[in-house]
Amino acid sequence: MKKLASTIVGVAALAGVSQAEVWNVDPAHTSIGFTVRHLVVTKVRGQFTDFAGEINWDGKDLTKGSVNFTVQAKSINTDIPKRDDHLRSADFLAVDSFPTLTFKSTKIVPGSGDNFKMTGDLTIRGVTKEVTFDCTNNGTVSAFGGTRAGFSATATINRQDFGVSWSKALDNGGLVAGNDVNLDIEVEAVKAQ
């Protein structure tokens, strides 16, 4: 009888534990954008258009979750084909040698309200560095036959840290292409069924 009672208590305790669930990134409603200074005086905007991602969380507590993204480097798009070809070359992303960019979260820390910080390993050109994103949980909604969650994330990285070092100096001391890359990511993820 004691054994049966212990088993029932154990099962009841497990039932109260939230289990991480898989949420797949919806590429049709997700954007991975970036901004870089050009000639110091303006910004060039671009995005990656081919990627896959997975979020594992219980739908409530992100700190117990994880995020994994893989981006196809050749999908870089700034709407200028000549510039995009240069960005794919060995001067920048070297897509023939390094076809993917990856991110894997290592820590998620809650902030105020729906905000949180997500730290993880970002790999570009085979170089892995720790990066922290400022994030917002935009909530969940039941739509189109499933449960969807939205997230926003921003971070600034120095491209030199990843071996992306091409540029030319200007007479005023600035660079043709700035070193700081501002990442701006909007994610819509669908709970796997």
Automatic annotation (TrEMBL):
A Pfam match is YceI
Q: Record's SMART domains?
A: YceI
Q: Which residues form the Lipid/polyisoprenoid-binding YceI-like domain?
A: 22-190
Q: Where is the signal peptide?
A: 1-20
Alphabetically ordered keywords of this record: Signal
* Superkingdom field: Bacteria
Q: By what name is this protein known?
A: Lipid/polyisoprenoid-binding YceI-like domain-containing protein
Organism in which the protein naturally occurs? candidate division GN15 bacterium
